[in-house]
Amino acid sequence: MKTFEPTEYKVYCVATGHEFEDVNGVLDDKECNSPSLIRARYAKKQIEVGGDEMGLYKFADWLPVKRMLKGSAAPVTVKSERFAKYLGLENLYITYNGWFPEVGAKMSTCSFKETEAYSVCGRYDESCGKVLVVASAGNTARAFAKVCSENNIPLLLSVPYDNLDALWFEKPLNDCVKLIASQKGSDYFDAIALSNAVVKSKKFVAEGGAKNIARRDGMACTVLSAATTIGRIPDYYFQAVGSGTGAIAAWEANQRLLEDGRFGDAQMKLMVSQNAPFLPMYDSWKADSRQILPYDDNKARRDAGIIDAKVLSNRRPPYGIVGGLYDALKATDGEFFAITNAAARKAGVLFEELEGIDLHPAATDAVASLIKAVNDGLVDKSKTVMLNITGCGERRIKSEKEMWMLQPNIVFPIDTPDGEVIEKVEALFA
User: Spelled out in words, what is the top-level CATH class assigned to the domain 76-111+214-398?
Assistant: First the structure.
């Protein structure tokens, strides 16, 4: 039986190919003169998947982690029958990230953000003596809070006040987890700005978001689940995107599976979506612009307030950076969809009727985009389709268990000076 062993790897710059060691959780290549993501290059070219008892770490051969933390669960992929029949698809596979015990999905935060958190925290070196800082629109914060609380890792979360209802838990959290929020009416970008102020203090370290190889390679486990279950790389990959990090991770996983050589030669066509009217990446892609088009701050906040899928409201995503979503869509001849709240809600009701589980709003966007793509003739019905359900079972788990809400330690106005933010947040960990 395979046991956990930290894998050997190096990191390299996507723009230049320059390879170097992963020292102190590096986020970029200091020798690169243009904005670029870095990637992990694993010594083991053919992945050996461990048993379910290893949770997410069953995919540790392709995770940049030093240790296996307790409490993780892996994505689960099943072949759809009822929804596939409804759409007329011969090979529809659904990858579940959430709470759906009947199919083996047991992520208690109900979101694929757990794949990020267990990977990032497994890479994080606590001996640096700094507090990990994570900005989030909701689901990511919930996942990191669970992982850090259960594994006693100091954590500071920064979340928009209007998204605090996403911070529900099965039990009170360890005091090592603290929460700050940007004021009412603010959005995810404001929470990011708040976290950027905090990490100017030497007592804190930024988790890094999409730049963190552990975050992307954790999310890539969704595709590893699908490919190792199906026995081949899917032809189409459907997911709603906020930052686009999950889709970038899917593209990177595809490239590793091609190098593995045992899963065919398919280049997955990325089929991504945003929730209208919040469409910065969709609009930029449709204009064939590598750079995000101008988006007025106040309009962005208003649009973020309208959409059901609040977690998709990133105003500064890793879209145009080398190795980012623009490059991923270009490389895979991808498609981008704009999904209304009404279409997503309708898709969610249909999916629950056919597959038997409630979905997060972001996942209903993905389902709606699949329905639209099929109706528009953009999918070959004989090909293999992967639908990444990034969150499910929240309504169910809340009906089965009593929940506890995390309250902010401090709520900051968006114009609070950085020095004041740092002083007050440092005091939380004194």
Answer: alpha beta
